[in-house]
Amino acid sequence: MGVLDFVFYGFTTVVIIQVIFYLFIFGRFAFLKQNKSTTKNLAVSVIICAKNEAENLKKNLPSVINQNYSDFEIVLINDASSDNTLDVIEHFSSLHSNIKIVNVKSIEAFWGNKKYALTLGIKAAKNDYLLFTDADCKPISKYWIQDMTAHFSSKKSIVLGYGAYKKIKNSLLNKLIRFETFSTAINYFSFAKIGLPYMGVGRNLAYTKKSFFDANGFINHIKIRSGDDDLFINQIATSQNTAISFNKNSFTESIPKTTFKNWFKQKRRHVSTAKHYKMKHKVLLTLLYVSAFLFWLFALTLLIPLFNWQIVLGLLLFRIVTQYIILGVASKKLGETDLLLILPFLEIFLIIAQLSIFITNIISKPNHWK
């Protein structure tokens, strides 16, 4: 049996693995119907941590202030900013009585650690239901608070939302950034639906103050500067306490990076926390990435010399068609249908980028928070 025979059997195996992921895991989210949630009018604290975000707050904070919701406060955390972020926060506070300011001074023990600033903000919040977003984000609807908090119940203490990136025409980098965000969202929504929630994004995330203090806050990973969102959710989320919200009114939107260098730097920070996930999550996520990487590597290895090319091409098309169907349905839910036009290219590019990030993070540690 030659080398190409082994590659062929390996290719068949990874196709099976990939199809299982798409049909039985991602399909759970793709074909899920959004249940109509009853508005609960819970008292909510919206928490925004800002470090040198004066201009973003000017643009985005009005979208939070003008939410159509009866009972909410906004906790604005100034995390030792060196610009006029505090001045902007104080200006908004003078105009709106439901804004609370938490001015964090930098201390040596927690220098540059967003978790310290967030902890002070959470402690200052008067309400038990907490909804998080970032200063560079804005809700796309005035019903954001209503739709996100509608999923809280006596059993559900965590709500995972979608933090989209703004579309920029004729930008390949923009499509890559949005595809990575879209893929990540499908992962954490789908894993939550099969009872294995493993992360959320701080751009759009809600949980109760009780959940935070029952887990002793961020203490288990306080020395890891990133992960105030995904590591905390990885720690406390279970099949019973986690809900997802994918109604378009519940989305937030951010302005994406405009250079590959800046995006690469940002993703290095995000990816660095994955090694601290629970083992079952690391195994599944690793299997997902490795099988996708080997799928394209083995396909090219076999098709170039035309080894069993009819079978290889059939398996290749079977997996791609399966992917298109599942991601096509999911993309309608998340408003990302334009990504399908160059799906194979985006997937291959992202696989290579993620491999580069992984290797770079091994060589040097990424910088965290601002």
TrEMBL record:
The keyword Glycosyltransferase applies. It comes from the Bacteria. The keyword Transmembrane helix applies. GO terms for molecular function: glycosyltransferase activity. SUPFAM superfamilies: Nucleotide-diphospho-sugar transferases (SSF53448). Residues 45-179 form the Glycosyltransferase 2-like domain. The chain crosses the membrane at residues 6-31, 283-303, 309-327, 339-363. InterPro entries: Glyco_trans_2-like (IPR001173), Nucleotide-diphossugar_trans (IPR029044). Gene3D superfamilies: Spore Coat Polysaccharide Biosynthesis Protein SpsA, Chain A (3.90.550.10). It holds the Pfam family Glycos_transf_2. Keywords: Glycosyltransferase, Membrane, Transferase, Transmembrane, Transmembrane helix. Belongs to the glycosyltransferase 2 family. This is Glycosyltransferase, catalytic subunit of cellulose synthase and poly-beta-1,6-N-acetylglucosamine synthase. It comes from Algibacter pectinivorans.
